Amino acid sequence: MFNAVIAAAAEGESANPLLPAVYDIVWSLVIFVVILFFFWKYVLPKMQKLLDDRAEAIEGNIAKADDAQRKAEAALEQYTAQLADARAEAGQIREQARADGHKIIAEHKDQALAEAARVTSNAKAQIEAERQAAVVSLRSEVGTLAIDLASGVIGESLTDDAKSSAIVDRFLADLEASEKAAK
Amino acid sequence: MIPFATDEGGFNGPTIGEFFPEAIFFAGTPFEINRIMLVRFLAVAVLLLVFWLGTRRMKVIPTRMQSIVEMGLDFARVNIAEDILGKKDGKRFLPLITTIFFMVLFLNITGPIPFLNIAGTSVIGVPLVLALVAYGAFIYAGVKKSPGNFFRNALFPPGVPPFLYIIVTPIEFISTFVIRPITLTLRLLMNMIVGHLLLVLFFSATQFFFFTADGGFKLFGVGTLVFGFAFTLFEVLIALLQAYIFALLTAVYIQLALAEEH
Which PANTHER family match (chain B) (predicted)? Predict the structure, then answer.
């Protein structure tokens, strides 16, 4: 079949498909250059820009998501820290309150003890003072009574004060000595 | 171009003259325009229009039209340029590879399109010009990178015993600097010529069987019609495939020229 074609070509026209005509080359070149510049200067830069935009948009979204995640984590950390702080503070306050309570109790106990001691010593001092007063008053009264009694008994007025008081003193001294001996 | 619009009776097979129609404008000048040139112009106009509309207002979220154009451009960029040449060199040679791919594709596809019925690449001009461009591109790429390295790799492949260079070097020279542009040209040209002739043959045979042949022979027309239909679809595939092969080989040649060693 192809032989027939070649034969037809050979006898009919002188055209050889392998020999380029000048106009063929010219128009092919024109077409090539037009398409080349069209792609080179118009289509491919636009396409490149689009690809860059798309990549940027995707990266932007990823960055945004990352940012949100980071913020959430920071907030969580902050809350956790605050919570821990609050707990620590509460513990501290409780501790402080306990210590204060102890202190107050101790203070009150001390105060009470001191008060008791004071009351006791006051009472003791008062008792002593009263005892002294009793002793003094007893001594003078007993002396007078004794002398009255004695003067009555012996009938002799011991009016001489010097003498009488010497007798009383001696009596008392004897009395005290006897008391001490009895102890 | 309407192969069966000839005189009554007899079978009119396709001829090579199909590819040399009469001039319409500027006959005899270097700017002569015939039917095939007009088909080419139409294909180029459609190409420019499609890509202009598709990339006029590009958005991050694409419209349907933009998606299709993007898919085409991505095919040339990712599956040819970046696959073969890597990201950096792929970007450098992307305009050239994209141009070759879509120019060949749009000029090929006019072959199976009704009323155009001839591929813009079925005349030697386009395949030849593109093959020479590819030839220039890989030599430019190699020489620009490192002339010594390029010619040594191309002519004195490493790992070959020195005395064999007497045989190897001429073979390498011919295969790299002579055969490559020729095979690029002929592969595309012959595919398109033969594709066209086959279609013409099937359909003119159908015409002949249906309207000229007698009796039982008319049945053969059904067979040829079915074949013609199948081959029309096949031509669409060939149009795509040849565009891919041309662009891919260009990228491969550039890659070989850029390689440190191969």
Answer: ATP SYNTHASE SUBUNIT A (PTHR11410)
Asked whether residue B199 is assigned to any structural domain, the reply reads yes
Q: Average of pLDDT values for A132-160? A: 75
Tell me if residue B25 falls in helix, strand or coil: strand
- B202 domain-assigned: yes
Q: What is the mean pLDDT of chain B?
A: 89
pLDDT digits (tens, 9 = 90+) for A59-86: 989 999 999 999 999 999 999 999 999 9
pLDDT, position A33: 95
Domain holding A74, by residue range, is: 2-129
- The answer to whether A20 contacts B125, with C-beta atoms less than 8 Å apart, is yes
Q: Cβ of A17 and B98 within 8 Å?
A: no
B9 falls within a domain: no
Residue A33 at interface with chain B, using a CB cutoff of 8 Å: no
Indicate the residue type of A122: N
Chain A residues within 8 A of B133 when measuring between CB atoms:
32
Does a structural domain hold residue A30?
A: yes
Closest CA to B243 of B85, B109, B56: B109
Is there a domain that residue A134 lies in?
no
d(C-alpha A101, C-alpha A89), whole Å: 18
How many domains are there within chain A?
1
pLDDT band at B262 (very low <50, low <70, confident <90, very high): low
**pTM of the shown model:** 0.70
Domain that holds residue B83: 16-258
Could you give the percent of chain B with pLDDT greater than 70?
95
Best probe of the A interface among B37, B38, B108, by most A CBs < 10 A, is B37
Task: Flag whether B191 is in a domain.
Answer: yes
Total number of domains in chain B: 1
Query: Has residue A166 been placed in a domain?
Result: no
Beta bridge partners of B33: B25
* pLDDT at A30 (0 to 100): 94
The shortest CB-CB distance from B20 to any of A2, A15, A49 is to A15
* A109 in contact with B, Cβ within 8 Å: no
What's the confidence (pLDDT) of residue A155? Answer: 60
Domain membership flag for residue A55: yes
The SS3 call for residue B34 is: strand
Task: Assess contact for B212 and B12: CB atoms under 8 A.
Answer: no
Interface test with chain A among B35, B44, B201, by most A beta carbons within 10 Å: B44
b or e along B128-148 (b: 16 or more beta carbons within 10 Å of the residue's beta carbon)? Answer: bbbbbbbbebbbebbeeeeee
